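Table S2 (continued). Query chain:
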Amino acid sequence: MSQPGAQSELSKLRNIMAVKKVDDQSAKIQAIFNASNHMIWSVDRRLNFTSFNEVFTKRMTERFNLKPNLNENAADFFEACLPGRGGKWREYYAIVLKGEKIQIEELIKDTAGKEHLEEISMSPIKDDDGEVCEIAILSQTVTFKRAAERKLKDQAAKINAIFDSTAMFIWTVDKNIRIVSFNRVFANQYFKLFGKEVSIGSNFSEGLSDAITPEAQGMLNLYFEKAFAGEKQQFEGSLQGRKGKKRWMETFFNPIYREDGVIKEVSCLSHEITDKKEIQVQMLESIREKEVLLQEVHHRVKNNLQVISSILNLQSSYVKDENSLNILRESQNRIKSMSFIHESLYQTGDFSRIEFSDYIRSLSNSLIHSYSLGTGRVSLNTDFEKVFLSLDQAIPCGLIVNELVSNALKYAFPNDAEGEIFMELKDINDKINLTISDDGIGLPKSLDVENSDTLGLQLVYTLIDQLDAHINVTSKKGTKYLITFDKQ
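Corresponding output:
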């Protein structure tokens, strides 16, 4: 059985522990009270300060150079800070003393003229009997928050104005291709095209079912599928309106991401390009007509050149002089050289350029046949790259090949000697390198190639000037011509 003195000591110990617990709890609450970034204070029923935190003291001192004191009348304090506003604060307190909570916004101007927007919450504190004994007030500065909200609101208004004033059709769809939003232009044109109102939640693809083909419907669904997979889409397509007119549209799909990176919707922008398409069709038709005309021109030029060649061939049958026959034959070969160009252009249909390697291969083979060297004693060896030249360069370059190959066939292999003509064509960074060489007897030492009085070599150097080309001639173990010029 315990002694009365021991019980008394135990009771004292419990009381001390209880007081300590309360003190610890109070210290913790006071620490939280002072750690807040908001101004916090309380008043009793006579509106005297019963508590306030450090932030309240600091801000009142900074803003108004006035420091609050416990038991000081709060309404009088705010009247001193904000002349003419004390009465308003008394009204607020009176409402809360009746047991109501209120939340207000107050625009406060400090002594330096700077404005502070405060969001203030007032709550009643009740005693054990349920009577309001004090008022707790919390105030947070929302100046920047409200400014940001206004800026966001202004930005939203601006975006909405652009959204509705643009000439583009703008709408968004969810993963079920249901319309989530749309602008005024989209709604107006949708009605004009299909004779029905567009609505939020309607399926966009189903709405187009009567206006596009099943194939186009499949492609549209594929574009949506790719957009929801994160790929931006751009495409053109046609719509059949209710009045039967085909309207061409250019459309852009872009994924819209949520904060977690998941694609929530797809934004769709579209504009009409019917006029552009009609102009394109007209231009293509015009181009095709011109291509046909140009093709016919080249065909007729080729035929006329062949007629001239045939006349020269007939004329040669009446000429007995060997020198005159050679002149006629050379003239005929030059005409054939130009004829081959027009034949190539007629066959390919590309009037801006010609594949030059095929052309000079055909030309060289024709020359060998022309000089009756088809027995095989002179062979043609080529190393050609695919090189495309404009008509302005192909004709003079072809005539140069004609002259140099003809000279080799006439003079490089006398007395029916065997030999080889080698030709190389390269395109090195848009610089054309053309090599024509033979392993014949070479040029006479007394021949000044550049100032020769022969028509063929004179023509070669005239054409070299026309091409703005450079020619290098060597005569060791045969004759070699290297011609270089810039490709147009």
